[in-house]
Specification:
Strand content of chain A: under 5%
Structural class of chain B: mainly alpha
Number of helices of chain B: 3
Order of helices and strands of chain A: HHHHHHHHHHHHHH
Oligomer: heterodimer
Largest sheet of chain A: none
Radius of gyration of chain B: 16 Å
Helix content of chain A: over 70%
Radius of gyration of chain A: 29 Å
Number of domains of chain B: 1
Shape of chain A: extended
Largest interface: A-B, 23 and 20 residues
Number of domains of chain A: 2
Amino acid sequence: MSKFTDRVRRILHADDWLDRDMTAEWEEAPADVPAPPAPEQKAEEQAERPDWWISVPFRGRRLRRLMVVLSVLLCAGIIAILVITAQYLPSFGHAENPANNEVSRRYIEQGMEETGAVNIVAGMILDYRAFDTLGESNVLFTAVCAVMLLLRVSEDKRRSAAHQLELETDDRMYEPKGDLILRYIARLLVPCILMLGMYIILNGHLSPGGGFSGGAVMGAGLILMLNAYGFRRMERFFTIRLFRAVTVCALSFYALSKAYSFFTGANHLHSIITPGTPGMIFSAGLIPYLNISVGLVVCCTIYSFYTLFRKGDL
Amino acid sequence: MNVLMILLLLLIISCAVCVAFTKNLFVAAVVFMTQSLLLSLVWILLESPDLGITEAAVGAGIDSLLLFVALKKIHAIHREHGSRSKEADL
């Protein structure tokens, strides 16, 4: 462990050892080493001395100056390329732009009629292009699975006293537990944030917003609650079993409700549920329900990202 | 391009430059958060409130939260002028 931190420190303070003139060490070093070192030993020595690859004329300050000049040139070059490319972009909001074609015209003119959603964006991403959104939700789910594989602390280690002590000291040191101000603010803010998130999700087919943004807002509210009240309170209702049940149910509901078009020949994606009157809360066919499932997945994902990063478990 | 838009774009560019040049990682994360908030205002001015809401929730909220947790894990956030300063950790 100390070796690792030592290495990290050496990387972090790379400038310092570049500043130092290494010539003396460099010239002295071969005298200590017996004449032909074994290849393995040699590799080790090269790892120990990080400047082995630096050629003789560029060392210390000169090398550093060269690096700075090169990186500034590289940055300027990339900025120039990007700016030149931006000149070829079509102007904003122009009628002749390639984006203004028959596809978007159809979405704008007949979107509300066909999907029943007043919010055109919701109609597009959850009806015309619902499979894209299903893929995105699955990507989030897969990301949580990968984070769990990497960061989840095993059962034995979590029970061990050393790990408990480490967690305790860590939390005490860097954030006050049961902070009164935080707790009172959270009592005011958390219900508002959760309500706002639910509103954004449930009203997704009528007003700007939808499953993803509403779920993110709700996840942020849960994280604030966790910070104010601590893990023990949150674990009463948010466990890994709840996470598993909610995400798997939501994703399979989404997949099943959109999969029927495969069985009906996949030639059109119209839902069996009629779009209803646009503008009503129970309208737009499946879109509100799909919004809810996406929102649940995103909310659980964001909250579990945070807890996995913090303590390695849900 | 009205005045507000130009002001917002200038602020975003200065935030981006600030993130690159700050030594303190905590300050860099906060400035990054500010940049996301300004960007969400730009989305609203460009008449895409959907993106504005998402940018504010994900870019300014969740991203910076995860950055703070990462900074805490690598002990990059120090107690300033605290009696029990733990700078010796790293």
